[in-house]
From TrEMBL:
Full protein name: SGNH hydrolase-type esterase domain-containing protein
InterPro entries: SGNH_hydro_sf
Native source organism of the sequence: marine metagenome
Lineage per the UniProt record: unclassified sequences, metagenomes, ecological metagenomes
């Protein structure tokens, strides 16, 4: 939805894969940025960091059955600090998009964890002077309307709502 809303107004580039957890970001950030000149970078990591994995690498594994969080919050904060330091080298206007809520019943993720990870991310963004685009609050307030039940993903209409908000923030940053 964001791409369609910005068509003819900006050149929008998205990484060619799911950004995954911050550990993947650290491995891939240089390749994703390339040698291009960036004006605005709107970014997020979180939902893949806070998810639980099984002892044999099983995705979205219950902590009640021995699952472990993919990236512990202390490591997440350190990783995010390193990623932000790298992004700042681009001299682009950086906009952090906080992590959206985990609805009740979501597999391998737990209600309230995004709040904790957002608090860690907020410390990083404050240290670096980076503004936060708050999609957590909008998503929380409209969860039943725009999110799939027991799922961190959105309905088609929900994706359009979020995409519209992201497009607005990007256009404002380019003024």
């Amino acid at each position: 939805p964001t791409r369609a809303l910005l068509k003819g107004k900006v050149n929008l580039h998205r990484i060619p894969t799911n950004g995954g957890p911050t550990i993947k970001g650290l491995e891939q950030i240089d390749a994703w940025l390339g040698k291009k000149k960036w004006d605005v970078i709107h970014f997020n990591w979180g939902l893949h960091d806070l998810k639980y994995m099984g002892p044999k690498g099983e995705n979205l594994f219950s902590k009640e059955k021995g699952g472990k969080v993919q990236v512990p919050i202390e490591e997440y904060e350190k990783n995010l600090d390193r990623l932000v330091a790298r992004l700042k080298k681009t001299r682009a206007r950086l906009i952090w998009r906080n992590t959206t809520p985990v609805p009740p019943g979501s597999k391998g993720r737990y209600v309230g964890d995004s709040i904790k990870y957002n608090a860690a991310a907020a410390r990083v963004m404050i240290r670096h002077g980076i503004p936060t685009h708050d999609l957590f609050t909008m998503s929380k307030e409209r969860m039943k309307e725009i999110m799939l039940p027991a799922n961190v993903h959105y309905t088609r209409e929900g994706s359009e709502v979020l995409g519209g908000d992201v497009a607005k923030v990007i256009l404002e940053a380019l003024k």
